[in-house]
Description:
It is built from one helix and three strands, in the order βββα. By secondary structure, the chain is α+β, with helices and mostly antiparallel strands.
Amino acid sequence: MRQIKIIVEKHPDGYVAYPLGLKGIVVGQGDTYEEALLDVKSAIRFHIETFGREVLEVKPPILEAFVAEAGVDV
Length: 74
């Protein structure tokens, strides 16, 4: 079993989840945190079944993930 870092965002209409460190785009969603997490795990399995285990071979691997906030002039 491979451990994958997953970002889960809370939005007004539900939750969105996506993994870090995979080749390609994989997204899950749900009305709850748990639903979004289950959905993205299912999407990750499908992505690997479709494109092969090489989607896991991102070099260099992600060691840690951080959330930062920055002001931007708009």
